[in-house]
Amino acid sequence: LPPFDPADPLGIDDLLEPEDLAVRDTVRRWAADRVLPHVAEWYESGELPVIRELARELGGIGALGMSLSGYGCAGATAVQYGLACLELEAADSGIRSLVSVQGSLAMYAIHRYGSEEQKQSWLPRMASGEVIGCFGLTEPDIGSDPAAMRTYAKRDGGDWVLTGRKMWITNGSVAGVAVVWAQTEDGIRGFVVPTDSPGFAAPEIKHKMSLRASVTSELVMDEVRLSADAVLPGVTGLRGPLSCLSHARYGIVWGSMGAARSCFETAVDYAKSREQFGRPIGGFQLTQAKLADMAVELHKGILLAHHLGRRMDAGRLRPEQVSFGKLNNVREAIDICRTARTILGANGISLEYPIMRHATNLESVLTYEGTVEMHQLVLGKALTGLDAFR
Ligand code: FAD
């Protein structure tokens, strides 16, 4: 029998191909070199001053629009994209958010629903990280029920005129292009908006106590005039943004386990070296029970992510299954972080350790890309056939 590996107790790595391991190692090494030494400082200051450099470097390692093909994208499998999300979020959820929004929301929308001209004009520069993208769906008064959005686009001769506000938009203030969803007389449509368009502004949202190493912004659109070809031709209705969200949520199923792994590993190391009552706290049964329970949920979550990844690669992943994964893995990740926090005692609240940073980040991850309650309602509807949303 192979020896027991505390880093992979279920032997999940046996499911991976050599190319998968190579992707994982590349992203893990990049995060260790470029994020981990600085992220506590970025988090404390609430700023990500090097976001443009990071985006270019992430483009350089093929992490932007990773599972898309053509237009400079890496054409990776869904499992490889998931492994990258896990490694990035093990560093910080903010960095994974940068990558998710760029690849799974903004680029995905253009790749799937854009015209050939839109794809040629934006995707290669987004894949390289030269242009950062954002995705505007949420509004100040509209969150879980995006069908009720108020942002609207009117036709004016051959042009479109876009007016409204979006809120909580990741990457907003640093984006060169915004994919904005708006009401039109034909239903909800997506617009590809260059952020230097007159009437467009993206002030940053300050005072966040979560995802502090991530840029979050408001988008203000005051009669932004766009040419006829700014609309995404391939989709009308909520199906458009929801399909993008499903792709991004899939990345969160993996990513959340990265934050959990970082907290778990920190707790194990600490429990082995911290002594109280004359021996390591990891030698007490109560601490071992915590570590065992954390390991069980962590590796069950990773296994679930793998399962969903394989279904996505086979073209068989349903949105309800993504809801299943997001609901479970983010909830369990938060639980693992909280338990890790208790093992570190007072040190658990310090930024010297990653735990509190991950725990507060995960509060955003629990809410964005569909709240816990929305995913419970998705599953509830799938299980009963009864719609409890309204
Ligand atoms: P609400 O919809 O007002 O919900 C409040 C509470 O009521 C929740 O608990 C919710 O589950 C519950 N609730 C609502 N309806 C029901 C119901 N029918 N039954 C039971 N409970 C219900 N959005 C973007 O478009 N792009 C982004 O890039 C983006 N980035 C984000 C980054 C951060 C850091 C954060 C925090 C948010 C981001 N969001 C983004 C917004 C996010 O998607 C929304 O916050 C989320 O959809 C929830 O909307 P809300 O905050 O308006 O909450």
Automatic annotation (TrEMBL):
- Span of the signal peptide: none
Q: Which part of the chain is the Acyl-CoA dehydrogenase/oxidase C-terminal domain?
A: 237-383
Task: List residues of the Acyl-CoA oxidase/dehydrogenase middle domain.
Answer: 134-224
InterPro entries tied to this protein: Acyl-CoA_Oxase/DH_mid-dom, Acyl-CoA_Oxase/DH_mid-dom_sf, AcylCo_DH-like_C, AcylCo_DH/oxidase_C, AcylCoA_DH/ox_N, AcylCoA_DH/ox_N_sf, AcylCoA_DH/oxidase_NM_dom_sf, Glutaryl-CoA_DH_mitochondrial
- What are the record keywords, sorted? FAD, Flavoprotein, Oxidoreductase, Transit peptide
The answer to whether UniProt assigns keyword Flavoprotein to this entry is: yes
Q: What is this protein called?
A: Glutaryl-CoA dehydrogenase
